[in-house]
């Protein structure tokens, strides 16, 4: 079963004539998490998301800090 993000990405790719910038903006508009910071520099973006932990996630991330990279999580 596809995730929400995978299904949304697949649907957006089917729309002819849209630029990657337009597709990205549509994805952001449909993003299911809170966007806490967004800066659009046209060819680069700065985006921060707030994603609440799901039940049971606290135990897995006890040593996680905002300075860790995704590679450090695993």
Task: Please characterize this protein's 3D structure.
The mean pLDDT is 76. The protein has a domain at 1-51. The chain is flat, with a radius of gyration of 15 Å. A two-stranded antiparallel sheet has the order 1-2. With 74 residues, the chain is an alpha+beta fold. It has four helices and two strands.
In short:
It is built from four helices and two strands; from the N terminus they run ααββαα. The protein has a domain at 1-51.
Number of helices: 4
- State the helicity in percent bands: 25-40%
Strand order in space, largest sheet? 1-2
How does the helix and strand content classify structurally? Answer: alpha+beta
Q: Give the distance, in angstroms, between the N- and C-terminal Cα atoms.
A: 24 Å
Taken in chain order, the helices and strands follow as HHEEHH
DSSP summary, beta strand count: 2
Shape: flat
Radius of gyration: 15 Å
Content of β-strand: 15-25%
Kindly state the mean pLDDT as a whole number? Answer: 76
What is the topological layout?
Blueprint: H1 4-13, H2 20-30, E1 34-40, E2 45-50, H3 57-60, H4 70-73
Antiparallel strand pairs: 1-2
Helix pairs in contact: 1-2
What labels would you give this structure?
4 helices; alpha+beta; 74 residues; 2 strands; flat
